[in-house]
Amino acid sequence: MEQGEAIKQLAEDIFRSKKTIALTGAGISVESGIPDFRSAGGLWSRYDPEEYAHIDGFRREPVKIWNMLREIIAVIEAASPNAGHKALAQLEEMGYLSSVITQNVDGLHQAAGSRHVIEFHGTNRYLVCLRCGYRGETKSFETQSAVPYCPNCGAVLKPDVVFFGEPIPADAMREAFEEARQADLVLVVGTSAVVFPASSIPSTAKEHGAKVVEVNLEETPLTGAVSDYIIKGPAGETLPEVVERIHGLAGR
Ligand code: APR
User: Fold this and answer.
1) Residue 251: what pLDDT?
2) SS3 helix, strand, coil % of the chain, rounded to 5?
3) Which residues pair with 156 in a beta bridge?
4) What are phi and psi of 104, to 5 degrees?
5) Does 121 participate in catalysis according to the annotation?
6) Which atom of ligand 1 is nearest to the CA of 25?
7) What structural domains and CATH numbers belong to the chain?
8) Catalytic residue among 54, 85, 116, 121
9) pTM of the full predicted structure?
10) Which residue ranges have their beta carbon within 6 Å of ligand 1?
């Protein structure tokens, strides 16, 4: 299906849907200046995730991991929502989107105005202590120059994001799969769909009768297997066009 036709189809599918949800990944924030992980030049082409994004590595060498974290936090702090984030917030505002389940930790969906956001991989807004359980806002620590230490027990603090080898927050896990089971349409935006269990959200929805539509620059393992169709192109351009068409269908 060529892009124009797919955009028209998605607008009609959303307009008719009783419950649409979105699963988003790093790709939706690329147009905000935050590199994704697995595209050419992505974060994992410069840092080995086994070494830099696994909880065992953080426990072993937290100061080294903070060299990468500092770079990510600086980029996230400088970023603002793009037209793709705003389009999803508009869909929720218009009553056409029930929730955004995001793998991103950058808070840009909330900054764009989305209210029902399920942060499946945690959030960069807080730092936590693995030793004593302390939790504090990232912005109250000067993470650009130093490694943040726990004010309670002195251990090195960790962003409240899910590292490989850590569990998904229980509330997020429960809520996301509840949404997936009840949805009749899932928008899968800007994710390579290779990291479990987030990658099983679309197939869970499909098993419960939902249609699955991808918005991505390129195909993923879902394409042709789980997805009904894909809109190829940058989310910051394609999603606003979908919203525009829905306005037309709604006669606004
Ligand atoms: N519009 C739409 N899709 C895009 C855009 C864009 N402007 N730019 C990139 N993409 C797509 C890429 O083609 C790719 O399929 O976004 C996807 C990004 O994939 P990844 O970099 O693997 O990011 P993500 O799927 O979110 O990774 C999942 O892996 O490293 C862990 O915890 C981390 O949450 C992350 C998880």
Assistant:
1) 87
2) 45, 20, 40
3) 149
4) -85, 150
5) yes
6) 26
7) 1-33+80-121+167-252 (3.40.50.1220)
8) 121
9) 0.97
10) 25-27, 30-31, 36-39, 42, 49, 103, 121, 190-192, 195, 215-218, 220, 234-236
